[in-house]
Amino acid sequence: MEYLSERFDQFFAWFWSERIWLPEITNWEKVKALKNPQAVALGDIYLCIPVAVVLIILRIIFENFIARPIVKFLGVKEKKPVKIRESDLCEQVYRKSRKPNKEQIQDLSSRLGWSTQEVEKWFRRRPAKYNLSPMRKATESSWRFFFYLTATIYGFIVIVYKASNENWLWNLDECFKDFNSHVISMELYFYYVAELGMYISLSFSQFTDVKRKDFWQHMVHHASTIALLLYSYIAGYHRIGAVIVFVHDISDIFLEGAKVFHYAKLQKICDVLFGLLTLTFFGSRLMILPFWVLPACFTTATKYVGDFLVYRIMLGLLLVLQTLHIYWAKCILTIAIGAVTGKGVEDVRSDEEYFTEDENHKKPAVKEEVPANEVKKIQ
Predict the structure, then answer these.
(1) What residues contact residue 47 under an 8 Å CB cut-off, 6+ apart?
(2) Domain span at residue 94?
(3) Is residue 81 pLDDT above 80, yes or no?
(4) Per-residue pLDDT tens for 148-189?
């Protein structure tokens, strides 16, 4: 046991080596000295875990008792789930072709003892079997809209107003100059804990929320964001970390707002919000981040703080996020082009599954019609 304990201590010392995790100009003692004593007393960054739990509870309360009456007033309707007759045979055929031909329908009719009209009705109703209610989609988007709006307002107050004398939002050099003197304020600490708690809660709720086309992209986004927030707080990069989160949140306000009004079928308001989403998304994530914030992270940080292993990994995660931004920008641009060319914002959104479609049932990989002899092979 003593041998194992000694080996564990050696591994622990190697894993948390300052040369791996921190620049040469600082060490763990200096980092610890910059922590706000009040934040440490509250549990330091570990407070994000109970905050995530609280946010999940608050979300349930908000969606059911605040968002539901509001979106109902806006016109969102509760859609009852579609019920269809259970049939394993039809399900197996449906996975290969959503639209069986007449020969297939007749073959299924004889095998099941149903009329051909009943078989046709089953295939018409089957796509709606797993469609979630617009009410649920609207309440989910309402919660995210509320959080991002609140977080953005609070972030603006903390970064712009509270830290106005330090001016590190407009002059990113101040995020890295005198690195060993950056004591995190309680206001910024709460901002970090709230954002971390939200992304942790979203990482879990992704599995129960409306599943969309970009499910795995969101999972990668959330995991990368959590890693970046955790590291930037632990290593003392909280100024640039707060700037990145603040810039990210702005466009999400209009995204979630547009969704709510889309589900309420208030298309004009939805289109206005979508226009604002397009402007803020392209402005913040395709201009400000890659051409202003990222260069500071790559060059200015190296100039004032230094370069080391884990920081390079964090830069890699920032590039992962930027790649995702380009992917989502393509989705938004497709919608915008469709609206301008007359296809209509609503139609394009449905095609892209960016605003409205869930993936509880995915499109079949095989679109060709199934021959009748294949139907006969299915037992």
Answers:
(1) 39, 193
(2) 88-129
(3) no
(4) 999 999 999 999 887 777 889 899 999 999 999 999 999 999
Same domain for 104 and 233, yes or no, is no
Tell me the per-residue pLDDT of 190-209, one tens digit each, with 9 for 90 and over. 999 999 999 999 999 988 88
The verdict on 160 and 114 lying in the same domain is no
Whether 260 is in a domain gets the answer yes
Section 115-123 average pLDDT: 88
Instruction: Tell whether 98 and 201 lie within a shared domain.
Output: no
Q: What span, in angstroms and rounded, lies between the C-alpha atoms of 240 and 233?
A: 10
Per-residue tokens: 330? 């393509």
* Six-digit token string for 298: 């790559």
Q: Do 125 and 39 reside in the same domain of the chain?
A: no
Distance CA 261, CA 75 (A): 9
Residue 187 burial (10 A CB sphere; 0-12, 13-18, 19+): middle
| Ramachandran class of 167: left when φ > 0, alpha when ψ lies in -120 to 50, beta otherwise | left
Residue 56, H or E segment: helix 48-62
Sequence-distant (≥ 6) Cβ neighbours of residue 262 within 8 angstroms: 270, 346, 349, 355, 356
Residue type, position 169, single letter:
L
User: What is the overall mean pLDDT for the chain?
Assistant: 87
Query: Is residue 46 located within the same domain as residue 122?
Result: no
Query: Is the Cβ–Cβ distance between 201 and 207 less than 8 Å?
Result: no
Q: Is residue 10 part of a domain?
A: no
Identify which has the larger pLDDT, 348 or 2. Answer: 2
Does residue 311 share a domain with residue 186?
A: yes
> 103 and 66 in one domain?
no
Q: Is residue 116 part of a domain?
A: yes
Residue 330, in any domain of the structure: yes
C-alpha closest to that of 308 among 229, 223, 237, 221:
237
118 and 140 part of one domain = no
